[in-house]
Prior knowledge:
By secondary structure, the protein is of the alpha/beta class. Helix content is 43%, strand content 14%. The chain folds into two domains: 3-247, Aldolase class I (TIM Barrel, Alpha-Beta Barrel), CATH 3.20.20; 256-326, Non-ribosomal Peptide Synthetase Peptidyl Carrier Protein, Chain A. Strands 3-4-5-6-7-8-9-10 form an eight-stranded parallel barrel, surrounded by five helices. Strands 1-2 form a two-stranded antiparallel ribbon. The model has no long low-confidence stretch (mean pLDDT 94).
Amino acid sequence: MAKIRDIELGDFPLLLAPMEDVSDPPFRALCKQHGADLMYTEFISSEGLIRDAAKSVQKLDIFEYERPVGIQIFGSDIESMKKATEVTARANPDIIDINYGCPVKKVACKGAGAGILQDIPKMVEMTREIVNSTSLPVTVKTRLGWDDDTKYVVEVAERLQDVGIEGISIHGRTRKQMYKGVADWSLIAEIKNNPRMRIPVFGNGDIDTPEKAVEYKARYGVDGIMVGRASIGYPWIFNEIKHFVKTGEHLALPTIEDRVEAAIQHLDMSVKWKGETLGVIEMKRHYTNYFKGIANFKEHRMKLVTSFDLNEIKETLNWIKENSDEMYFV
């Protein structure tokens, strides 16, 4: 049984990765419905929270049905991160997560996200200060290192545990790799096999099929898996992995009707949470993934991604559903 403090997550939990502009409440609701055990919000800027910036504050929205849920924060200034931790705690999440993994230039080159991997003493000190400024359990998401010459994550994980974190998720790439190449889980396994480690260790990177999840579970011995990009437009991945881990058999794949229903549910929640204009715009990144692999779908996809009219989009989705027997996967 994997536990973060007293939060029981099950025997082999599946975590939804915090993804900017993806892991919002509408998307998290679908992932929860389809089997995610623990979810994290999009990362939130500590400076934005301190300044009470509307976009940052809105990202603190969490709902009872998605528990357990962690709110993830990032920043490069220790004092700001402490203050942001206090603001975040008032939103009443189950967990506060620190982002030490985001590789994008605008974050990492300011010393936040994966940027802090260039200053391990500061990373440890910041973590200690955050842990000491909240009564909530604190977890960390990070990478193997800044580049191939600085893969210090085995030592780093132990030091972060020593200052009080209660769970760690590791993406099996360096910052320099971004999302390219193949994720290397060998160091994640080394952390898990370190006899001094007491906290749960979750692996992240390249898990996009139930078979791969089972293979990595057996090969690397992690406490659970964090799923990111494979869940975009495909929240079914969580239950598919769970079923395969348990039985060695595949669940039936979602039909075109299932995909349309999920897309409509996602769209409705997006509009309700963000307002019609933004809700319609921000759903556009999901349609390609919801309908990936369907033959001759280009015309319908173009309608979905070019229209800004909610009723028109729903008409297109309902037409797809009603005519799904004429469509097939390639």
